[in-house]
Amino acid sequence: MRIAGSRDESVVSAGSRPRPVGVLGRLRPYVALTKPRIIELLLVTTLPTMIVAARGFPSVGLMAATLGGGTLAAGGANAFNMYLDRDIDRLMRRTRHRPLVTGDVTPAATLVFATLLEVVAFVELWTAVNLLSAVLAVSATLFYVFVYTLWLKRTSKQNIVIGGAAGAVPVLVGWSAVTGHLAWAPVVMFGIIFVWTPPHFWALAVRYRDDYAAAEVPMMPVVMSMGATARRIVAYTVALWVLSVALGPVAGLGALYLSVAGVLGAVFLARSIQLLRSGSSDHAMKLFGYSITYLTVLFVAMAGDVLLHHP
User: Is residue 11 part of a domain?
Assistant: First the structure.
C-alpha cells in the first residue's frame, strides 16, 4: 500500500488543470493516448517487410490499408496500456504528463476510444487486406494488454523480454498482407525485433531506474545490478547481430543488406560494451538513441536491397 505524500499531491494538482478546449485541443490528448512515436517505429518495420514480401512495391491501396489498420490496432493497444498503467504513470516523472494522469481524458473515455480503435482496425484489415492480417494485429493487442501489461510488467524481470513480442508482430502483419500466409523470412524478422527489444528498452530503463523503482515495476536495471543488466544487453546484441545477418540468405537479400547489417551490428555491440565498461546512464541513453536508428536503417536496407534488384 502506498502512502500519499507531496509527490502524489503535486500530481493531483497537475491533474486539476482546465480541460483542453477547441477541436484540436480535445483531439490532442486522444492522439497522445496512442503513443505516436512508438507507432512510427512499428510502421518503419511494416512497410519494408511488405516490400521484401512483394519483391518490389505493393499496390498503394494495399500499403495504405495495411499501415492504416496497423496504426489503429497499435494505437488501441497503447491506449489500453495507458488506461491500465494510469496508477503507476502518476509516480514516474517520464509518464506523469500523460492524458489520464493530467485529467485531459477520463478512464471511461479511454476505454471506449481504445475499444473503438481495435474494432475498426480489425474490420478494416479484414475487409481491405485479409483475415490473417486482421487476426495477427488484434492478437498483438491482446498479448500486449493481457500478457505484458496485466501480468508480466509488474511481476517479472523478464517482462519486456516476453512482452516485447507484441511489438514484433507488425512484420508478420505486413508479410501476410502481401502474401496471405507466413514464411521463414517474416519469422526471422519477428526474431530480430523480439531480440532487439530488451537492449533497446533496458537502456532506457537504466536512465529511468528510479522511476521504475518508485512504481515497483521490476525492470531489469531495478532488480539487477548495472553490470548484470549491461551483460545481458551485450548478450542480446550479439544474438541480434547473428539474426540480422541470418536474414540475408533466408529472405534472399544481397550484399547491400548484408553490409549494412554487419556494420550496424558491430556499432551496436561496440556501444553495448561501452555501456558495460562505464555503467553510465549517459551511455545508456546514447545506446537507446542508437537502437532506434539501428532498427530504422536495418529495415530500410532490406527494402533498398530488394528495390535495387527489383526496381
Answer: no
Q: Grid coordinates representing 249?
A: 540468405
- Do residues 101 and 145 make contact, with C-beta atoms less than 8 angstroms apart? no
Contacts of 21 (CB under 8 A, 6+ apart): none
Taking the C-alpha atoms of residue 103 and residue 118, their distance in angstroms, rounded to an integer, is 23
Where does residue 187 rank: exposed (0-12), middle (13-18), buried (19+ CB within 10 A)?
middle
User: Residue 164 carries which DSSP code?
Assistant: G
Going by C-alpha positions, the residue among 167, 177, 174, 172 that lies closest to residue 48 is 174
Q: Which residues contact 278 (CB under 8 A, 6 or more apart)?
A: none
Domain with 250 in it:
28-309
pTM: 0.91
Q: How many domains in the chain?
A: 1
The per-residue pLDDT for 23 is 65
